[in-house]
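From the methods appendix. Each design record in this collection lists the tokenized structure first, followed by the designed amino acid sequence. Records were kept in a plain field format so they could be parsed without special tools. The example shown here is representative of the layout used throughout.

RECORD:
FOLD TOKENS (945 positions):
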């Protein structure tokens, strides 16, 4: 027959009983205690602490001086002990007494409201780090005397590297937690003492002694429980690993759960600088460069194992592992970090609450949800701490004893256990709901059963009629393409898990394609994309886990062959479909420069990595601009201007990289200056998708100057080398493609001349030898990168050239003659189609008209020399009275319509030829009328061909 549980005393009685017991115990401990407890205020504080922690009262009883220290209004940290190298038998007691005293101070400050839970967690972390450092330094001296030290290849002494994982690594250790450690060392070798040891054995023994010194239970208790099971291969693995061995392990054996574990890793003792440097090299294992939804598979597996363990052990009250507990918040945040951290460095934090805030700021968690999760986390961690503070036990469940529950509730300021239990239940329900929302695949439209059955029957069976019923215009062609895909080696080689994902994704894609504007085109492009991502489990996972991305993908592919090709070639662009910024405003020029600079910096001095990262940023930003144009969220004229801004930012970074390489090889030219000038659509800020860059390179230096490096070059050769580097880097092929094709034919004297021109020769050429068409090109030219003073000098030459008085008749003849030759050679218009760029009334006609007017009027109207793009040039001509306002507005509308039509062709990979169906006739007529009004004749002679 079970003994009935005695009733729990009322709240006031419970407080009184524990206060009296604690004060009586302490007064009896020593005269010093009794004297201090003459102070009623101190007695009140001791009584409050006694309700929350038996451990703290016992420590105060054992250490009389501690009560005096804590009697201060704001008790400071305790000084660490000095471990005497000659008295190693004293070390365990010193460390344990220090840990007990410092932990009691944490209890004191927490219960009395001097610290919030964040400070308590940070304090527990600092205490563990102090004890680790003290113990390791003492043991290192002992090992050095016995075995010497292990030295690196340069002869420098090596130290053990102690990595803290879990909450220690995250800087948020709970009150009575064990510490997860992994031991490593930088280089192999042998110690140099009388009894030498190989590096692995040396550091393994040192690590084992360190764990024992902290973990072993003595008459003074323990210092910190040490867990070494997170090292490679767990308990079966070696105790200490070289960095090289760790690298091989994670490349070959690293598992999903280890990505979660090492996300928080931090070097906490020993050679922390070497440890942190090595952790940087581990980043690609933890954080993939793309959005990595495969992280959810690992999380589901871990969660399933935890749920199974809970059910076996009846752990419903476990604050850490139970439903809606601390682990679920940690997994939720860490999963989103792993999914997105490869692309967003701000998400790579080790500490949970800052990482949660970064997810909110990045738009991955709603602000109100983030605030609720942060509050729940603090609530649960504070309660967990109080459960452990009661008796300094490593427990995570609320105690079963009713009196212990009541004590915890009262010490936390609640009216009693029932009130605390209600708040705990509400907190856990909120956490559980958020966690389940992450783990359960997003609600999706189920693929029609017919399409699902059809796909799963391929390639042996399946009826093409299903595709016809779904809405495909060429069901036979679609069926043949799908059968070829299904029997292909890529599909047959898939793992079971990947094939299961594909079997969910393909029917959904078929359904979305059937509903799109161009089902057959969408299907063809989808199959090309699927073929390119079959080996990339992360992208199949993205489409499987994120139906919104799947639907958006099909919509984009149906409407844009260009974007379909780019996504198939560079699947990392799929990430952009889930980036919340993709539907927001496009970054401005300054933001693009910052993004490109950050990409290059991320290469850490590796030119290949920097170039790849720069290309990925270019791809991502141009993709966002393309989506904005495709969705008509902004005028086409904005899109072409943004593409030019992006090219500016890329060229600026490439110039910096190229200059760094030339300087490293040859030194600098004293006083030398350099500029990259953009012509054509780049200079005019009207760049299209896939356009090449018209560039001219200028330099200014003493012709006799030599560079000051080990291999000096004279100025002309130095700057020619720099220009060659720029062109080479822009055209270099990386895994993300090449940056830009370049065209240097607009430089002085064209393809026959040197790649780079001196400023003086450029000035002489423009003023005395350039053709009229070259001055027309100069109207749109601008410096895009280089020395600011060179930019000013280029502007001076440009203005001086363009502002020269000209004979209007001769100018008109030159401009019209060049345009007629171009139309005869380049206009691809025919009876059925109109060439948007070169056709009559097209973009080049409009550009020639504007350039003619600028050259004719600039001598008397300097404001015309400021703009480069057609819209602002038209506005300037109107403001100066050189064009009527009605004409300006008509030409602006014509320009916008032509640019939009051209951009639409480019986005769908079509030549810029549109049906001559009259849709653009009003705009073309406005351009033709303005040309005729100024006496210009651009039509070729009738016999021209």
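DESIGN:
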């Amino acid at each position: 027959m079970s003994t009935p549980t005695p009733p729990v005393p009322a709240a006031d009685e419970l407080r009184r009983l524990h206060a009296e017991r604690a004060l009586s115990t302490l007064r009896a401990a020593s005269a010093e205690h009794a004297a201090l407890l003459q102070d009623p205020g101190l007695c009140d504080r001791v009584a409050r602490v006694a309700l929350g922690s038996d451990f703290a009262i016992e420590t105060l009883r054992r250490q009389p001086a501690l009560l005096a220290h804590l009697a201060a209004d704001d008790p400071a940290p305790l000084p660490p002990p000095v471990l005497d190298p000659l008295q190693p038998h004293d070390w365990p007691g010193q460390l344990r007494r220090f840990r007990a005293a410092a932990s009691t101070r944490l209890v004191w400050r927490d219960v009395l409201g001097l610290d919030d839970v964040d400070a308590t967690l940070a304090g527990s972390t600092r205490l563990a780090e102090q004890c680790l450092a003290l113990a390791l330094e003492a043991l290192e001296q002992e090992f050095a005397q016995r075995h010497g030290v292990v030295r690196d290849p340069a002869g420098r002494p090596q130290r053990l590297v102690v990595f803290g994982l879990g909450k220690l690594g995250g800087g948020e250790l709970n009150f009575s937690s064990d510490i997860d450690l992994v031991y490593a060392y930088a280089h192999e070798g042998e110690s140099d003492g009388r009894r030498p040891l190989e590096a692995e054995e040396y550091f393994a023994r040192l690590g084992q002694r360190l764990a024992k010194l902290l973990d072993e239970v003595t008459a003074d208790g323990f210092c910190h429980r040490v867990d070494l099971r997170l090292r490679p291969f767990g308990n079966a693995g070696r105790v200490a690993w070289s960095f090289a061995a760790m690298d091989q392990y994670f490349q070959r054996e690293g598992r999903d759960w280890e990505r979660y574990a090492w996300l928080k890793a931090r070097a906490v003792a020993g050679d922390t600088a070497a440890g942190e440097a090595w952790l940087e090299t581990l980043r690609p294992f933890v954080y993939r460069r793309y959005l990595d939804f495969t992280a959810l598979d690992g999380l589901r597996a871990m969660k399933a194992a935890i749920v199974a363990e809970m059910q076996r052990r009846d752990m419903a009250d476990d604050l850490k592992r139970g439903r809606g507990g601390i682990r679920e918040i940690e997994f939720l945040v860490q999963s989103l970090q792993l999914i997105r951290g490869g692309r967003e460095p701000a998400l790579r934090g080790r500490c949970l609450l800052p990482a949660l805030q970064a997810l909110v700021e990045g738009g991955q968690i709603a602000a109100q949800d983030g605030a609720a999760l942060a509050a729940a986390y603090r609530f649960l961690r504070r309660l967990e701490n109080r459960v452990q503070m009661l008796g300094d036990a490593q427990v995570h469940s609320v105690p079963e004893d009713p009196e212990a529950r009541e004590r915890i509730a009262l010490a936390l300021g609640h009216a009693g256990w029932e009130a605390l239990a209600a708040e705990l239940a509400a907190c856990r329900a909120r956490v559980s709901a958020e966690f389940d929302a992450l783990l359960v695949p997003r609600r999706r439209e189920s693929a029609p059963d017919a399409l699902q059955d059809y796909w799963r029957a391929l390639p042996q069976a399946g009826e093409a009629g299903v595709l016809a019923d779904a809405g495909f215009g060429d069901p036979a062609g679609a069926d043949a393409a799908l059968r070829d895909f299904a029997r292909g080696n890529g599909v047959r080689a898939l793992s079971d898990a990947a094939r299961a994902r594909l079997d969910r994704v393909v029917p959904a894609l078929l359904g979305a394609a059937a509903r799109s504007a161009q089902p057959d085109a969408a299907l063809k492009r989808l199959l090309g994309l699927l073929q390119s991502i079959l080996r990339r489990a992360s992208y199949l996972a993205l489409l499987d886990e994120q139906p919104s991305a799947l639907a958006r993908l099909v919509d984009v592919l149906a409407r844009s062959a260009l974007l379909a090709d780019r996504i198939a070639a560079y699947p990392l662009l799929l990430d952009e479909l889930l980036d919340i910024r993709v539907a927001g405003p496009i970054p401005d020029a300054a933001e693009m420069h910052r993004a490109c600079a950050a990409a290059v910096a991320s290469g850490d001095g590796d030119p290949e990595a920097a170039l790849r990262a720069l290309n990925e940023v270019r791809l991502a930003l141009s993709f966002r601009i393309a989506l904005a144009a495709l969705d008509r969220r902004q005028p086409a004229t904005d899109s072409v201007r943004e593409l030019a801004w992006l090219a500016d930012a890329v060229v600026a970074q490439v110039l910096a990289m190229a200059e760094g390489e030339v300087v490293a090889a040859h030194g600098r030219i004293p006083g030398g200056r350099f500029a990259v000038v953009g012509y054509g659509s780049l200079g005019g800020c009207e760049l299209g998708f896939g356009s090449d860059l018209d560039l001219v390179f200028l330099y200014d230096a003493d012709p006799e100057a030599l560079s000051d490096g080990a291999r000096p070059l004279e100025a002309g050769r130095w700057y020619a080398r720099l220009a060659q580097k720029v062109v080479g880097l822009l055209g270099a092929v990386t895994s993300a493609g090449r940056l830009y094709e370049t065209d240097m034919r607009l430089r002085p004297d064209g393809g026959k001349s040197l790649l780079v021109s001196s400023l003086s020769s450029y000035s002489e050429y423009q003023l005395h030898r350039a053709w009229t068409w070259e001055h027309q090109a100069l109207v749109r030219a601008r410096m895009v990168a280089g020395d600011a003073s060179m930019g000013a000098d280029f502007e001076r030459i440009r203005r001086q050239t363009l502002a020269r008085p000209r004979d209007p008749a001769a100018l008109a003849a030159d401009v019209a003659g060049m345009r007629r030759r171009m139309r005869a050679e380049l206009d691809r218009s025919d009876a059925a189609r109109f060439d948007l760029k070169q056709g009559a009334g097209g973009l080049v006609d409009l550009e020639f008209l504007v350039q003619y007017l600028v050259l004719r009027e600039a001598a008397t109207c300097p404001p015309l020399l400021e703009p480069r793009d057609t819209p602002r040039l038209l506005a300037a001509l109107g403001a100066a009275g050189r064009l009527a306002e009605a004409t300006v507005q008509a030409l602006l509308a014509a320009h916008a319509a032509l640019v939009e039509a051209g951009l639409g062709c480019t986005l769908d990979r079509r030549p810029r030829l549109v049906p001559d169906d009259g849709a653009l006739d009003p705009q073309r007529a406005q351009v033709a009328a303005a040309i005729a009004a100024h006496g210009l004749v651009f039509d070729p002679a009738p016999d021209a061909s």
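APPENDIX NOTE: The radius of gyration is 36 Å.
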